[in-house]
Amino acid sequence: MVKILINLAERRLYFYKNEQKINSYPVAIGKPNTPTPPGTYTVVNKIVNPHLSVLGTRWMGLSKPGYGIHGTNNPASIGTMASLGCIRMYNRDVEEIFPEVPIGTSVEIISGGGSYNPKPQTPSQGTSGQRYIVQRGDTLWRLSQRFGVSLDALIKANNLSKPNMIYPGQKLIIPG
What we know:
Shape: elongated
Largest sheet: 8 strands, mixed, barrel
Number of helices: 3
Number of strands: 11
Low-confidence stretches: 114-127
Radius of gyration: 18 Å
Strand content: 35-45%
Structural class: mainly beta
């Protein structure tokens, strides 16, 4: 199974195969007035040598119409906020992952907070409690205060190896 994670704050694309990170690549993201939309999408089409030269040598269209992952005719833009919302890659990088990405591949775009492990955080055995989905701006400290549990209990209940790296959409258990 292939998965792509794009971290907008890092301006990096992470490529996973069978839950293992294979590589990461620098990318250009949307300009402030045409931002790349965070969310979970799928690859719906792929084109080799698209007609528009600005798309570089490969296009992988996302389930959000008008958005995709593609190469570029402006390699100096990589690492910047330069696109109309798409994810730009160096042509050599998009050519490397293109054959490995089937139609239907999950593409998750997160706004920031550091790298993330796509494996679900499985709760420790015997842990029970309320389920919570992390929202933008949440920190473990704020959640511990809101729900009246210790920070250590939150970390232990969710087997968090990097507790400073929670992300919006992540599912947590709030111990009871």
